[in-house]
Amino acid sequence: MRQQIIAGNWKMNKTTAQAVEFARELKQSIDNNVPVEVVICPPFTALAPLAEELKGSGIALGAQNMHWEDQGAFTGEISAPMLKELGCRYVILGHSERRQYFGETDAGVNKKVKAALEHGLIPIVCVGETLEQREAGVTEQTVAGQLKGALAGLEQEQVAGLVIAYEPVWAIGTGRTASDQDAQQVNNFIRKVIAEEYGAAAAEAVRIQYGGSVKPANARGLLSQPDIDGALVGGASLKVEDFKGIIDAIG
Ligand code: PGA
C-alpha cells in the first residue's frame, strides 16, 4: 500500500518569520495520526529554522532545487550534502518553472536525481506537458520522454523509492485543474512507463503525485484516483487552512 504524500511547494514565498509562524500553526492543526505524509518545501533561507520548528512533528522538510555537484565554484547554488545537513528528506527536481525560466533539461535533472539519491534525499521528480503539447496530442510522448530522461541509469530499487509529480504546465498557478479522469489517465500512464522500464515492483511502489491548482475543493476527487498518491501543492500550500483542507481530503 503506497502512503499518500502531500507536499507544499512554497516557491519564492514567505520570509523566515512567516515560515516559522506557518509551521507553528500547521503543527497545531493537523492530527498526527492522519494516514498521509506531509512535506513543506520552503525557500532555502527558511530550511534551517523550519527544521528546528518541525522537530518531532512528523512533518517532513524538502527543498525546491539543488545542484548536482557536492561543492565547487557554482555561485548561487546549493548542494545535496548541504540540504541533507539541514534535515531535508525531499528535494523537488525538474519543476516546470525551473525548466521554463532557468533552462533545466532532462539531462540536468537526471544528474540531480542521481546526486540526491547518493546523499539520501528523496527526489520529487516533476514532469508534465504544456498546453500546446496537450493540444497537439503529444502528452504521453512528452511525459514519457521527461521520465526516461530524468531516471536514466537508475536501479529498480531507486526508482521504487522516488516520488514523481505529474504537473501539467497549463494547470500550474492558473486555477485550471486537470479533471480527475485526465490526471488519473496520465498518472496511470506514468506507472506503465515505469513498469516497462524498471519492472512491476518498482511501478507498484513508486508514488505519483498530481500537481496543478490543487485546492481543498478539488482535492478529494483527485486524491481518490487509484494512481494518484498525493499532491504537489503551490498556491494553496501558502495558507494553513487551505493546506490542511487538502490533507483532510485524504481518507
Ligand atoms: P499550484 O502550483 O498549486 O499553484 O498550481 C503547483 C506547483 O507548481 O507545484
Describe the structure.
43% of the residues are buried. The chain is an alpha/beta fold. It has helices spanning 16-29, 47-54, 80-85, 96-102, 106-118, 131-135, 139-151, 156-160, 180-198, 200-205, 216-223, 240-247; strands spanning 4-9, 36-41, 60-63, 90-93, 122-127, 163-166, 207-211, 230-233. It has one domain (4-248): Aldolase class I (TIM Barrel, Alpha-Beta Barrel). It contains twelve helices and eight strands. Helix 1 (16-29) packs parallel to helix 2, helix 5 (106-118) crosses helix 7 and helix 7 (139-151) packs across helix 9 (180-198). The protein has an eight-stranded parallel barrel, surrounded by six helices. The chain is 45% helix and 16% strand. The two termini are 13 Å apart. The chain binds 2-phosphoglycolic acid (PGA). The site of 2-phosphoglycolic acid has 13 residues, from strand 8.
